Amino acid sequence: MDEKSAIQLLKKHSDDEKSYKIVLAHSKAVQKVALDIAEKIKAKGHKVDIEFIKTAVLLHDIGRFKCKPGTPESIKHGVAGAQTLREEGIDERYALVCERHLGAGISKEEVKKQGLPLPEKDYVPQTIEEKIIAHADNLLWGTKPKTIKDVVERFNKEVGENAGRKMQALNDELEGMMK
Residues with Cβ < 8 Å from 76, sequence gap 6 or more? Predict the structure, then answer.
């Protein structure tokens, strides 16, 4: 999988030109932030698959074409994206990025406790690449960059303080790797 193939896949699964352009613009903005974080972490001696991030980040929101933002279905876009990539026969690592990029992750317990409309399993970023993509995605609202303070406040308000704490913890983990 390369960037060109990822963009073609987005185009193939988009329902219209406007949606495609919105998802692509957001994904490219997230890509820029993710690659910046990845390069800084790699420069400190950590192993990071830059080429994987470069491509996977373009596909992280492919499920948005099925589960639109601002709808009750929105929370399912990671699962929908993973399903799309699995149906396409794409390497499982890309599907896992889709599933695990929401916020700082959603645990199986949170799915059950909150009655979320998701299959009961963990959706928590595991690899450094998944964590970088999830974090970079959180730092952009559309294509507009936000501070971690803005992000934590938003998640506290919209999802709850536990989500805000997890967001801060993910930020702190990655920041620590850059030092």
Answer: 63, 66, 67, 117, 118
User: Which tokens go with 121?
Assistant: 């399993």
Top-level CATH class of 3-178? mainly alpha
The answer to whether 131 and 121 have CB atoms below 8 angstroms apart is no
Write out the chain's pLDDT in tens, 179 residues.
Answer: 999 999 999 999 999 999 999 999 999 999 999 999 999 999 999 999 999 999 999 999 999 999 998 888 999 999 999 999 999 999 999 999 999 999 899 999 999 998 999 999 999 999 999 999 999 999 999 999 999 999 999 988 888 888 999 999 999 999 999 99
| pTM attached to this predicted model | 0.96
Q: How far apart are CA 138 and CA 166, in angstroms?
A: 12
Query: Residues near 10 by Cβ (< 8 Å), separated by ≥ 6?
Result: 20, 23, 24, 27, 58, 59, 62
Residue ranges per domain, the chain?
A: 3-178
